[in-house]
Structure formats: structure tokens, C-alpha cells
Task: structure prediction
Amino acid sequence: MIMVKVRTTQLDDPGFFDKDKPKKKQRDKQKKAETDFQDTLNEGDSPMLSRNDDDEEDEKVFRRMIRLKDFDAVIPLFGIESIEKKNRFIEKPTARWQFGIVINGGIETSMRCPKVDICAWYETEDLRDKRYEELMIQLDGLGIKVITI
Result:
């Protein structure tokens, strides 16, 4: 006959065997977070992705792109890493200064930034500054927040 020693305190504690299971509150919070995330996608609040729920079988995911008229380029909304004002000196045909805006200047091409050194050059500094401010206002409207210090 084999004798097994059992501690009665373990048998009397009803929650002893449930300690390894996740608590119900944690599971409820996870489910709520997942549904909240799906709701934001369905409402179109997310600037990166939005879903078209007209046909549940045929779900489409849209990617937001920006068409920059002055730069003659189309890039992903979050493909902008830097925006700089630059100057350059042109010698031919006549010597003069040009004033420009450079997007993603000096960055290596990658999956995140497929287009680099996107430039637009202007003959006057005032015109360049005006276009720069218009660009910043439009980007702010698209969800890219720029903090000015």
C-alpha cells in the first residue's frame, strides 16, 4: 500500500487551483481594447489605415498618400522624416541664389523612406517661405503634428 501525504490547507482553499489561470477582468480588458482598436479602424480615425465595411467578405485596406504638387511627387503619409529649407548658388546661365524646400534630405533609401532628397526650388526667399508655411498647415491638417520651438 502506498501512502500519499496531502495537505488539507490546499484542498480547503477554493482558489488554489485557479492561480495559474488569467483573471476574468484581464481578459475583458484585452477584449475591450481589441474591439476599441477595431472601432477606430472602422470609423476611419486612423490616418494610416481605414477599412471599407460595405462588403464584409471583400475587406479593403487603404493606405494614405500625399501628392506634393510643387515637388512633383507622391509619397506615403508617414514617409516624411524631415523637411528643411535650403539655399544653393547657381552659376549658369546667370549667377543667382535659389531657395528650396527639401523633404527627406540626406536620408538613405529604405522601406520606410522610399523617396529621399525630394526638392522644390524657388527664385525668391519669400515665395519659398510662403510655400513652406502652406505645406506645414496642410500636413497639420492630415495628422502630422509639428512642434515649433
The radius of gyration is 29 Å. The chain is about 30% helix and 25% strand.
